[in-house]
Design a protein that fits this description.
heterodimer; A: alpha+beta; 14-stranded antiparallel beta sheet; two-stranded antiparallel ribbon; 9 helices; 18 strands; elongated; B: mainly alpha; 11 helices; globular
Amino acid sequence: MTTTAGTGRVPGTRAGHAGFGRLLRAEWVKLRTVRGWVIGMLVAALVILGIALLDHSSCGGTVTPGGPVITGAGCAAPPSGPGGVAVTDSFYFLHQPLAGNGSITVRMTSLTSGQGPAGLQPWSKAGVMITASTRPGSGYAAMMVTAGHGVRMQYDYTGDIAGPPGMVSVASPRWLRLTRSGGTVTGYESADGSRWKVVGAVRLAGLPAIVQAGMFATSPGSSLSSSHTLGGSSGSGAPTVAVARFDHAGLTGQRPGGGWAGTAVGGPAPGAGFREASGTITVTGTGDIAPYVAAGGAPGTAIEQTLLGAVAGLIAVIVVAAMFMTAEYRRGLIRITFAASPRRGRVLAAKAIVIGSVTFLAGLAGSIAAVVAGEWLLRSNGNSILPVSAFTEVRVVAGTAALLAVAAVLALALGALLRSSAAAVTAVVAAVVLPYLLAIIVLPAGAADWLLRLTPAAAFAIQQTTPAYPQVSAPYTPGNGFFPLPPWAGFAVLCGYTALALGLAVVLVRRRDA
Amino acid sequence: MRESLSAEWVKLRTMPGTKWLLAGVVVATAALSAIADAATRCPAGGCPVDLARTSLTGIYLGQAIVVILAATAISGEYATGMIRVTFTAMPRRTAVLAAKAAVITGLVLAAGVIAVAGCVLAGRLILPGHGFSTAHGYEALSLGNGPVLRAAAGSVLYLALIALLSLGAAAAVRDTAVAIGAVLGLLYVVPIVAAVLGNSGTARHLQQIAPMTAGLAIQATTGLRALPIAPWAGLGVLAAWAAVALLAGGAALRLRDA
C-alpha cells in the first residue's frame, strides 16, 4: 500500500507568476533569516554613511607634507549658470543696453597676450556678447574668436558651436555679429563684413526685454601639464590676459542715450579694462566664461565625494551576495532548493532579483544618508559644494545604489559559477574595486582610461557629476574624478559583465549536478 | 612543534588548490607588472617615474591571491569541520596557528621571490624601450642598486605579511568570505578613500596607518621625502597589523569552541 503524491503540482499552484512569486518569497526568507547577511547589508549602508563623515577638509585648506595648513583663497561657491551647473564667469565687458530686438556687429583685428606671465591659452577668447545682465552666472550668447580653436559661438556656459578655424590679425580681420529676435540669438561671422555666414542660432530661456550687448575679452589660467604622481594628477595655472582690438562697432536697437560702459564681470582683475582711440576699441580681460571644472586643486567639492564610501559598501555587499549563493552549496541546501523547484534558471533569477533589490534598497538608504550628512559636514566646514541639477543628483544617488545592486548580482553569479565564496569574493573585488584603485593612484592616465573602459570598474562613472568639457582645459584624469565613459555607458559595462556571468551561471547550474 | 609543522605542511601541500594559487600569485603579479610597464611611456625622457615601483605594480593584484591562500588555510578547515580533527590531534591551538603561519609564510616567500624576480625581469626588458633608457639618464633596473633591492625584497616581505594578516583575520572570523572581504576591504578601500579625499590631513593619516599604503611605501625608490611614511617604517606598520591579527586569531582559537 503506497500512497503516492503523484507527479502533479500541488493544487492551487500553477506555472507562471504565482509560482515565481513563491520562489521569490522563499529566497527572501532565506536572506532575511541569516543574521550575518542582514548585518552585512546594514554594514554596507552604514559604511557608506560613515566614510562620508571622514571628510574634514575645510574651505580649500591643504596640508603640505610636514607644513602648516594653507587656507585656500577661493572659498566662495562658484556661481551657478542657467542650467543649474557651476560656472566660471569672469571677463571684461564693454557694453550698452539693448532694448527689444536688435543686433551688435564688430570687426575684430587682433587677439594677443597681455602682461600675463604666460601667453595666450588655446581657449583665450574675445568677441561680442548678448547677456541678460552683468551678474555672474547670467544667461548669454557670444560670438568669439579663440586663440586655438577658431571662431566659436558659445552660449549659457555649456553650449559651444564651432565656426571656421583660424586666428585673427590685422591682415585677416574677422567680423562678428549677434542678432536678437525675441528669445533667439543668432550668431554670424564674416571675413569682409558683407558676406555673412550663420554659425548658430540658440534660444536663451528667460532673456529680459533689455539685455546688455557689447565686446568682451577673457583668458583662462595656463594649465601646466599635469604630472602623474602617486597621489593622482595635479595641475595648477598662472593667470593669463587676453587683449582684443575691435573697430567698426555698431549696434542697432540700442536705448537712446546709452553709451559704452565697462564692467569687470566676476570682480576686478589686474590689467583688465578698455581703451578707445579713433574708433578702435581695445578690451583687456582675464578669467573664463565656461562651465566650472573643479580639477587640479580648484576649490569646490563635487557631491559624488560624499559617496566615496560606496567602494567600502560594495565589498560588504559582494561578501553577502557571494555567500547567498555559495552557502547553498556548502550546506547542501541547494539539493533541497532544486528538489522543491526543479527549474534551476528560475531559482537563479529569483535569487538575483532578491539580492539585487535588497542591495539596491540598502545602498539607496546609505547613499541618501551619506549625501545629506556629507553635504552638511562640508558646508559646516565652510566648503562650497558645486551645484548640480536635481536630475544629476538623483542619477548619482540612485546610480550608486544600482551599482551596488548589479555588483551583488555579479557576485551571486560568480558564486554559482565557481561554487566557492573565496574565489567569488576575490574575483568580484579584483574586477570592480582593484581596477578603480589602479586607475586613480597607480597607472598613468592613458592606461587608467583603458582600464575604466574595459573592466566592470567603469560603472563608477555613474557617480561623475561634472562632464569633461572640451571648451575647458583641465586635467581630465580618473584621479581627478573624470571617467573615460559617460555615466550610463560605464554602468552598462558592469551590467554587460553581470548579464554574461548570470547567463553562464544559468547554463552551468543546469548542466552540473547540484 | 615539529609535528604540527609537518602536519600543516602535508595538509597544505596535498590540497589541490595550493599550487594553483601559488602559481596564480606568480602569474598575476608578473602579468600586471608587465602591463603597467607597457602602459608607462616617456618618449622624450625626463618623466618623474619611479621605475622600481612601476615594475612592482603587480603586487596590487598578487596580494589578493595570497589573501585567498592564507585565509582558506584556516577558514577552510572550519567550513569542512576538519578543524575539530586538527585540534583533537594537536590540542595546543596556538601552536597549530603558529605552524600554519610558518608554512604559509614559507610558501608565500618562495612564490613572492619568483613573482618579484619576474617583475624585475619584465621591467628590465620593457622599460628601456619606452624611453627609460640609459640614453635618457635612467639606470636599468638592477638588484645591485640598493633602493631597488630594498623595493624588491620588501615586496616579497610585503606578500608574506599580507598572508599573516589574512591568516590571523580568518582565524578570528572563521568564515572564508567574511575574512577575505574584510582583508581586501582594508587593503583596497582605504587607499581609494585617501586618494579621493585628496591633500587633506585625514587622507595622509589614513595612508600612514592603512596596511597597503604604508606597506607598499617599501617599493618607493624616488621621492622618498614626499611619502606619507618612510619605507621600512611603513612595512613595520603592516607587520603590526599582521601581529595584531595573529594575536586576535590566536586568542579567538583559544577562547572559542572549534
